[in-house]
Amino acid sequence: MNGAFEIGAVALDAQQRALNVLANNVANMNTPAFRRQDTQFAAVMAQTSMSAMSEAGQATEASPAAGGVRFAARPTLDVPGEVRQTGSALDVAIDGSGFIELMAPHGRSLLWRGGTLVVNEDGMLASANGYPLADAIRVPDDASKLKIASDGQITATGSDGRSLQLGQLTLLRTQGAIEQLDDGLYRAGEGSRVIEVMPGEDGAGQIRQGFLEASNVDLTREMVDMLMIQRAYSANAQVISAADQLASITNSLKR
Hints:
The protein has 2 helices and 19 strands. By secondary structure, it is of the alpha+beta class. Belongs to the flagella basal body rod proteins family.
């Protein structure tokens, strides 16, 4: 009887986690370059009763094996969002599968699919959350009319009207697992390989100035998934309710 309660509890917990992931997808549907996460039950291990053998070769008391659901949520990086024109010179998107590298505190490397650029207090081009580009592109105080070409060349117009070469924006391609962080940032997973390429090479994509990549969240799909999760949650709650009724009947039996 206890097995029914345990199975129902494990299933309810798994469905609750799946609902949390879905809610996060919906909450970020307007976040530029956000990648929706898919829920995945990576492994289902049935709980069975195994007899432990003594040194004499005889079966002793039963020993339960580990059981439960291994839950995983992974971002759908292979599904790009729609690239939408904004007209702002500081908005950049990647028309391809590459990433822009950002430098976080303590020398950490972060991956970014693009968004709104800013010039930080040090005069460096950075993401909106303040992380400078790893390519270390400095914008002079008197510069104007910032231009980012599709091949990553960044130029501006100086106070004397001359064109200034500010630097080259490169992209990164990843081979292996990628971990999704907050604020539209990513990090290469353990054992992943990161390759630096020029925009337009090896499928990394080209830079598009004045555009932003929308999230790849489809609200209709999320609503359908929510209904399925709710039905599964309800079914597992019924398992616990049925087990409780049977336990109540058993306890009320008279000898």
